Batch of 4 targets.
Target 1
Amino acid sequence: MTHSSSLGFGVLGAGRIGALHARNIAGSIDGARLVAVMDANPDAAQRAAYGGAAVCDDVDTLLEHPEVEAVLIASPTTLHAEQIKAAARAGKAVFCEKPVALNLKETYDALAVVREAGVPFQIGFNRRFDTGFREVARAIHAGELGRPEMFRSQSSDPTTPPESYVATSGGIFLDSVIHDIDVARFMVGDIKRVTALGRVLVADYMNDYGDVDTSILTLEFTGGAIGVIQNSRRTVHGYDLRVEVHGERGKLVTEAERATQVWKYGEGGIQGDYIYYFIERFRDAYRAEVQAFVDSVREGRTPTPGAEDAVEALRVALAATKSLKEKRPVEVSEITV
């Protein structure tokens, strides 16, 4: 591949995220083109095969396509590790939605194959590519806030996921809160200890899988700062997300509550609309993260966030899960293979 050529993508998984990525690659990612799509549901794959992309029956067929140079993995989490290994062994650059796996051993094994193959790898922590999140991180890293002292992240979904999804998700900390954990690491730094509290207040079926739908996670950073992450699977006013970082020189806040940046004033009061879910909230960030991956691969740079970020966010999420189950603070250092 030369710098002037486009990067040919194969997409594994054509659900809501995979289809979004496929559409972006086909039409709005500079230097990329959609070559092939594969999904267990052929109809879903066909719908996501934008621009005349090939529809493949299985992973091997997609990897053997002569024009596929990079693989974007957006399949169910339980398939990620094996698909990463297969793509890396085939010499393809790999972009994978989070997490790599639901445990450290499978994660380490998959990333070892990536390292041995010498292929580029990026993990899909899309919030790092949101303009507000990036500016907060930039300002902190530039020292504009002084020493960070407190971090707070709130992520609340408008509705609970289907029971079939919860059954294989790994729980709220590995499925959802891991995004907030990555943001905390991205902005403030490594986390050494967590304490989790959780309840089932929305969907009783969570109990059948040892999961919760409402959680609070306190963080202790290695640099001395403290933090809290709040998550709920029910927010009747839509997707509710904000991050605050308090430091010695002030506070930084990023949030985006409304889909349309308009307030309506009238006899009935002041009204505004809202963003329904994460797809709408992070639509631009999803495009930006893949653009960053493409640029890194074409320019020979190491993509970021990479393998270390995938591992460390997972370790904190596993520590949070352990804390919830054992009802005690957990050192991240306790989480080993």
Target 2
Amino acid sequence: MAERIFALDIGTRSVTGLLLEKSNDTYTVLDYCTIEHHTRSMLDGQIHHVMEVAAVMKEVKENLDKKHGPLPRVSAAAAGRSLITQRASAAFELNEDVISNSDTIRHLELSAVHKAQNQLTENQKGKRGFSQQYYCVGYSVLTYKLDEEPIGSLIDQRGYLASVEIIATFLPRVVVESLFAALERSNLELENLTLEPIAAINVLIPVSMRRLNVVLVDIGAGTSDIAITDSGAITAYGMVPIAGDEITEAISDEFLLDFPIAEKTKRMIANEGEATVTDILGFETTVTKAMLVERIQPSINKLADAISGEIINLNGKLPKAVMLVGAAVSLLT
């Protein structure tokens, strides 16, 4: 029997609910619903007003409930606000025994995640205000090894020592707990939690492409999330707290527009090439894409510099390719 999955992407600008059906290894999208936040209740990927965000989440859920029946459990993707990553390894002796099930490998991976948590705690000691304030929200396997040699899978392998290296991602407690509070107010039980860049890279960059040093940048409203692949694995995650909202604020400042009007103007110009707007003083102006880009170029450069700087910091070199996704991309390219 096919399994139904309800997922929420809780973004700075909007909440999207996705209903899927899983059959074997195939996913079919049954329905989706996107509703924008009525106020700026989220900034830079952080929930600032739990009740307002919860109201939008509940509205999305109820729209899908009406057509598909009750959806009490949800898988959620969190924005990478103040993301910290930590690498760690774990190993255990096989003594020529065979690993015959995935549960053993899962236990090995989680042992590495636990080590990453301890290392993060140790690294943060002495920093002001730190007291177990980070939650692990996901991890990726960098490599498996059998007797110190890289191997694709440990299942049914025989040797003396099995090990794994992972990269774990952590978010501040306030980010995660505000998300939990919003889900609780929406009458939703959290089934799975992941990070937006982890979800994005698993959809857009398949395993067969990960031997290439490729960077995926998801430019949202509040954060620009980064994921990097190289040598067959996901090697780094990162974020910068600068994204589409900074572009909208620059449009608002430059053309004297209220923020919601500036956001509509940005979208219209991205889709149609120009927009006619009336500023707060009542003056009407037709803004073309070329005019817009010229007037807000410093803000575009600031966003591009922040993203490129974080890529070099994470990757240590220029990547082979950069893939950009997100509504603000058309103004940056």
Target 3
Amino acid sequence: MTTRSRQIHLASRPTGWPTPDNFRVVEVDLGDPGPGEVLLRNTWMSVDPYMRGRMNDAKSYVPPFELGAPLDGGAVGEVVASGDDAVPVGATVLHGLGWREHAVVPARAVRVVDTERVPASAYLGVLGMPGLTAYVGLTRIAQLREGDRVLVSGAAGAVGSSVGQMARMLGASAVVGSAGSAEKVAWLTEELGFDAAVNYKDGPVGRLLAPHGPFDVYFDNVGGDHLEAAIAHLDDFGRIAACGAIAQYNDTEATPGPRNMAMFVTKKLTLRGFIVRDHDDLTAEFHERAGRWVAEGRLVGRETVVDGLDHAVDAFLDLMRGGNTGKMLVRL
């Protein structure tokens, strides 16, 4: 028996900002799962900034998406047929074949998740890759210490909002964020417990941050002028966890670097980039701590939800424009 389904393929590689013309919806027929496989009906899929880099034909930490082939990414789905007793029909699982309505996946490549305790979508947000990224960046990369003052850019996104909340629970004395609207700033300060936040569209970000520094830790999701501003406002021996640089993902020309790099010497600063997949050894620790924080109501996530595979590309493009608050998700 076959299952008729649909997937999003990469039709052409974007130059600069992606457009809907770079993508194509394709109908496919999937066979029954073989031994050790499961057939999933996806219920949620994630769109994430890192996916933009995979649309380029360039060497990186993960292979580029192939032209004429389906995109992939984090997803949660229900098992509708199973060739492995360990993953029964009806189970809800986390896996890596998003951008499609159904998928046949090796059973060893899925993780059964508990949807009695938290909604399934949380495993793509605060309890998923974004949450783990925040935890790794703070604890291992920035080596957050009791009393540190923390600055995070992209603070109203899935990673940034988790960074701010976790930093406080891990002992930060102050947490300051940068976001792109007054509404996002209000969410950070009024609901998530940030001590302060700035709307970077209100003026030069360095000037906006001046009243709130100096900082001991900067968690960078943006790059560009935010990185330059953070360098200026870090205290001696400040640490930067470089997670992303969304400000330049769609640039077609080389982006100038920060003009104040000499401060790395005079302030004795440290910058370390990281990829979360290199730190899988922290996954169990993260799940234990973050699961407890979520259960206690101390770690919360907001979701921006778009419905239907037909609008998945719209969700991705809106994410790249900063149209999300919290985690951008597609409900299938």
Target 4
Amino acid sequence: MSANYWTSSHLKDYIYTKSELNVIRLELFKQEYTKYGNNWLTIPLQIKDENNGVTQNKQISIYAKELHYDRDYNLRIYLYLQLMKLGKKFQLKQVIISTAMVYLQRFLLKCSIKECNVYYLITTCLYLASKVEECPIHIKSLNLIAKSFWPEFIHSDFTKITEFEFYLIEELSSYMIVYHPYDPLKKILENYTIFAKDTIEDGQNIDDYLLNYEFLQDSWAIINDSYVTDSHLLYHPHIIAISSLLLALVLKFTKMQKNCKTKKMNEYIAFSLINIEQIEGCMKELMVLYQFWTGSNKQDQKFNEKLQKNKYNEEWIRFLLYQLYYHKSVTAV
């Protein structure tokens, strides 16, 4: 185990450039195409006409975004919320849920969503993360709760989780240590506070520049949401932390407050020599997520008005996953 992020397996083996990530996912897509062909999934749809409803079969193309983790934000958000739901049932710390989400993302770089049961993947990632973060869950309790959430997809035999655990560890090459932006966020705020106090001019009110605890909570919430994106495969934890701070500034404060705090924060970033391009890239990942999640765009409302997270289509992705596993079970029979 490495106590230093800069010498850890997290940095050496699981931080990619965008081009590297695209190459990995392209290879996975080629494998899917070779195995399943173009129209890989047939689903029944109820189409309404003037007289009555007619059920027709629809072919899902392999080129469509559905059930491709890199392109389907419905799938990303759904898996994240299911993992959160399972973790909150056991009142686990957020860092355990976040670790599990990183395991899930790393696993889906090597295995197609079409080749595994995502509900077992969610359950096993949480089980493994709880052990790595030294807060283990009893496997029988976990299996019982998971089965109550997804009875069609989770077997009553809890050893299935153990089997998947070995598979998961193998695919992750036994690299279990994950570094998160939560600690860097606290350190950045501490250093920013010192910087603001040292650089304030005579006659200025220091309260106009400091960031309070409520702001820390908003930044923390944005970091939690960042696990839906590729940020934790592309950027260092401190980059994600500072990006969340800047985005919270945009969303939280009034124009006058924002001008004071943003100006001082920009001075701090320039002074600390943090990579600006990486911050821009990370913020773009987050904004794309929120624009999809809220259904907002420049035409209908400003991005910084609200983040009402109810625009993604959970029923559709749940239906697709059901049809996927139903189709596989029928084919196996």
